[in-house]
Amino acid sequence: MGWFRRKKNAVHKAMRQAEETGGAVLPEYHRPTPECPQPHLWSMYDSMTAEVEVLEFLRTLVTTIKPNLIVETGSFLGVSSLWMAEGLQRNGFGRLVSCELDPVVYAKAAAKIAESGLSDWIDLRNASSLEMKIDGTIDLFFSDSDLPIREQEVKHFLSKMNPHGLLLMHDASSHLKTVREAALRMEAEGLISAVLLPTPRGLVVAQKREGRR
Ligand SMILES: C[S@@+](CC[C@H](N)C(=O)[O-])C[C@H]1O[C@@H](n2cnc3c(N)ncnc32)[C@H](O)[C@@H]1O
């Protein structure tokens, strides 16, 4: 079986699991890491959707920094999009553009968003992050698609980033490695300044260096 097909099957499997658990909150089951030795203290809906505490953090970031434009890569079932949209709704302005590559997953996310009452805040696209065109300056960027392309993704959108805005990269734990190493590499290259939050799957909070005063 090809690499792309294996990835697609893994996403579809996670989607079915998410549907089976029906929104139940479970203890986080990603393995302990030196930076986060007790992951079970966190909660999750499923293995793809960001940890519940990270969803809460995303919503709070939106109300804290009041972005005009949020871009998310990797919508999956639209759960993190909805949490950020709640923040936008509370702010009373702003928009979120989120992209999902897989058409089947995209259709599920679109249906969930349509019935949420938050669809006015979300522009959901069935597109690849690396090909997505964005109009305007990005104030909050949440990179949550496929692990190996996160570095490319950040570099793709960096010129569009507000230097005072925030750039988040999920799945940056020392166990998952790829994203953490990508963030540290971009920091060494002088592109971003990064903080590594010690959550079960890891979260990079960064800012682009260029233009920052
Ligand atoms: C970790 S899940 C996203 C979880 C979601 N942000 C949440 O917390 O609710 C990753 C998703 O990215 C999608 N994906 C993979 N490569 C992509 C790409 N190049 N562009 C957009 N989406 C992609 C996958 O199909 C999958 O649904």
What do these coordinates show?
The protein is built from 6 helices and 9 strands. It has a single domain (about 50-210), classed as Vaccinia Virus protein VP39 (Rossmann fold). The chain starts with a helix and ends in a 5-residue tail after the last strand. The strands form 2 sheets. Strands 5-4-3-6-7-9-8 form a 7-stranded mixed sheet, with helices on both faces. Strands 1-2 form a two-stranded antiparallel sheet. Strand 6 (about 140-145), helix 5 and strand 7 (about 160-170) form a beta-alpha-beta unit. It is of the alpha/beta class. The chain has helices spanning about 5-20, 50-65, 80-90, 105-115, 150-155, 180-190; strands spanning about 25, 45, 70-75, 95-100, 120-125, 140-145, 160-170, 190-195, 205-210. Helix 2 (about 50-65) packs parallel to helix 3 (about 80-90). The mean pLDDT is about 95. The longest helix has 19 residues, at about 5-20. The structure holds S-adenosylmethionine. S-adenosylmethionine binds near residues 80, 144, 146 and 149.
